[in-house]
Amino acid sequence: MERPLIAALLLVGLIIGSGVGSSYARARRGWNDYQAAKKTVPGARRAAWMMIKVVTTKIGVIALLLIGAVAYAATGGSDEPAPPTPSSTTDERPDR
């Protein structure tokens, strides 16, 4: 009678042990992944700020060019009509 009880306890211990062991292995892998990601954060943060700086610089240059173009168009345009261009008439004969 003692053998079936020992076998049942052994089976229960095996099931519980495998569940705990797999949970520990999963937690350990998660911790290692977390540590690896934590080490890459400063580099990723630096790269993100660099990209933001590049984009804002490009936007600033484009905005300055647009403001300059608008200012040039506002001051450079005049309302005077263009001088008439000479036109040739068909009645005139060229000298031979």
Q: What brief labels describe this structure?
A:
single chain, 96 residues, mainly alpha
Relative helix content: over 70%
Global shape:
rod-shaped
Percentage of β-strand residues: under 5%
Class by helix and strand content? mainly alpha
Structural account:
It is a single chain. By secondary structure, this protein is an all-alpha fold. It is 78% helix and 0% strand. It has 1 helix and no strands. The protein has one helix at residues 2-76. The protein is rod-shaped. The model has no long low-confidence stretch (mean pLDDT 86).
Topology at a glance:
Layout: H1 2-76
Short description:
By secondary structure, this protein is mainly α. It has one helix spanning 2-76. The chain is 78% helix and 0% strand.
